[in-house]
């Protein structure tokens, strides 16, 4: 985060954290291409269009709030990742960021693989025709039923997360007469968040098996002895919304070190390493994400160098971007309901959604930006907090931002970069009806996940 004096002047010093990124953009009508999906632009009247369609038309046809997903941008990002990593590596889209049958079909067509971490995600992937060998199954507590289904349909790999699971998967595979391809997820003692990482974080977390204390080496020892398992590699995932490649560097070095130990002890060179996901995106203009080709080059160089110095053949690398693919491809379209100016503080702008469609601000203190999209305005900037309609004062969508002072009820505003972990984490709090996901492409819009209805809610309530 930038640490310069607040450009809005001392009047805002008491309401915004010192050095906060938010400053009135020199032009509130400008759309920063870093945070908006690729086909977003303003038309001659100043209204925002995406995929060639004006937001007012989308609001009229599909209602608000709605997630508007730019399909050609999604596909372009898939291709960029696939091209960057090339034929000697694999890109797995992390389905938990956002998954639907349409998304699975786009991934399939664009040549990506898919990570799932529950029976529900697996069912969605299978239903939409993702080739089963391109699916990887994750999770720290997969149920026996989930493992049985994953093994019997023949998923490409299961990522083992605990000592119990090593035995459980081996047993299930054997009883089904199969040999399951598996990786072991290790915790490398690296914790990466945004611009920093900690290389000596202790392994106080629920995922994976620690490299420290010989735990991971012991897990490998056990997995190699079990007939139901074909151990193909080591997996490491170090965090989320990461910009600094140094965390991956430490992680890769430690994983390669384990591969060398495995070779020395067992005489086998495991053919795969997975470095996980977690690559950051721009939520605000302050964020500077890396392009897939830079990431591919950095990771490839690190692994090649470490393997050379350990005398190992370079293994097949895989990565698991979720947010970095789908995050920037969607924005949430809201209608402004009420506006409350609080003298000397800020103006509260209430929208027709909130923490039920975007929990990230409340959950992670996430930062977002917001723009007036149904028109442009030359009015002065006003400091706003965009809040939802839920019965909770923490129901905040955008903590601090500037919108034009002539904002009025009925205006459409949009929060960009909500493609990841918004619809997938949406809830029915206050019996909210979860918004639809509308895919736009080349002048056409279609619902890929429809809006919930009161009938949907009442169907589950058996009375
Ligand atoms: C969450 C997760 C990802 C994806 O993380 P992003 O931040 O969306 O890229 C990838 N791999 C694993 C194992 C994860 O748990």
TrEMBL record:
Q: Name one GO molecular function term.
A: diaminopimelate decarboxylase activity
Which residues are in the Orn/DAP/Arg decarboxylase 2 N-terminal domain?
73-327
Q: Which annotated residues bind substrate?
A: 323, 360, 364, 392, 421
User: What pathway is this protein said to act in by its record?
Assistant: Amino-acid biosynthesis; L-lysine biosynthesis via DAP pathway; L-lysine from DL-2,6-diaminopimelate: step 1/1
Residue numbers bearing the N6-(pyridoxal phosphate)lysine modification: 96
Q: Which UniProt keywords apply?
A: Amino-acid biosynthesis, Decarboxylase, Lyase, Lysine biosynthesis, Pyridoxal phosphate
Q: What PANTHER family is this protein classified in?
A: DIAMINOPIMELATE DECARBOXYLASE (PTHR43727), GROUP IV DECARBOXYLASE (PTHR43727:SF2)
Q: Quote the protein name from its UniProt record.
A: Diaminopimelate decarboxylase
């Amino acid at each position: 985060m930038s640490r310069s004096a607040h450009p809005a002047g001392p009047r805002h010093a008491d309401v915004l954290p010192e050095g906060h990124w938010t400053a009135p953009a020199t032009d509130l009508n400008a759309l920063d291409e870093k945070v908006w999906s690729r086909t977003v632009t303003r038309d001659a009247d100043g209204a925002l269009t995406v995929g060639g369609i004006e937001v007012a038309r989308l609001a009229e046809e599909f209602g608000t709030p709605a997630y508007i997903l730019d399909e050609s941008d999604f596909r372009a990002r898939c291709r960029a990742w696939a091209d960057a990593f090339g034929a000697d590596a694999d890109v797995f889209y992390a389905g938990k960021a956002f998954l639907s049958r349409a998304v699975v079909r786009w991934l399939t067509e664009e040549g990506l693989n898919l990570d799932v971490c529950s029976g529900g995600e697996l069912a969605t992937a299978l239903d939409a025709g993702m080739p089963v060998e391109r699916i990887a199954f994750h999770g720290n507590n997969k149920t026996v039923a989930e493992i049985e289904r994953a093994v019997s349909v023949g998923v490409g790999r299961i990522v083992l997360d605990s000592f119990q699971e090593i035995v459980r998967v081996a047993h299930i595979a054997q009883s089904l007469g199969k040999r399951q391809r598996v990786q072991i997820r290790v915790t490398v003692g690296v914790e990466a968040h945004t611009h920093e990482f900690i290389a000596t974080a202790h392994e106080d977390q629920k995922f994976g098996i620690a490299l420290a204390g010989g735990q991971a080496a012991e897990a490998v020892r056990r997995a190699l002895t079990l007939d139901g398992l074909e151990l193909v590699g080591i997996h490491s995932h170090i965090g989320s919304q990461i910009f600094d490649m140094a965390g991956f560097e430490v992680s890769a070095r430690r994983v390669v070190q384990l591969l060398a130990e495995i070779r020395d002890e067992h005489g086998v060179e495991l053919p795969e390493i997975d470095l996980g996901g977690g690559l950051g995106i721009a939520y605000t203009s302050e964020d500077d994400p890396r392009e897939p080709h830079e990431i591919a080059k950095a990771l490839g160089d690190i692994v090649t160098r470490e393997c050379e110095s350990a005398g190992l053949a370079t293994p097949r690398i895989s990565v698991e971007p979720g947010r970095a693919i789908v995050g920037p491809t969607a924005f949430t379209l809201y209608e402004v309901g009420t506006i409350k100016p609080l003298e000397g503080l800020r103006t509260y702008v209430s929208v027709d959604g909130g923490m039920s469609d975007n929990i990230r601000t409340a959950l992670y203190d996430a930062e977002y930006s917001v723009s007036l999209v149904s028109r442009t305005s030359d009015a002065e900037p006003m400091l706003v907090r965009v809040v939802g309609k839920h019965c909770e004062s923490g129901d905040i969508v955008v903590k601090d931002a500037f919108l034009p002072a002539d904002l009025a009820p009925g205006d459409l505003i949009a929060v960009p970069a909500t493609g990841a972990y918004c619809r997938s984490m949406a809830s029915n709090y206050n019996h909210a009806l979860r918004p639809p996901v509308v895919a736009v492409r080349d002048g056409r819009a279609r619902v890929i996940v429809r809006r919930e209805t009161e009938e949907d809610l009442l169907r589950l309530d058996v009375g």
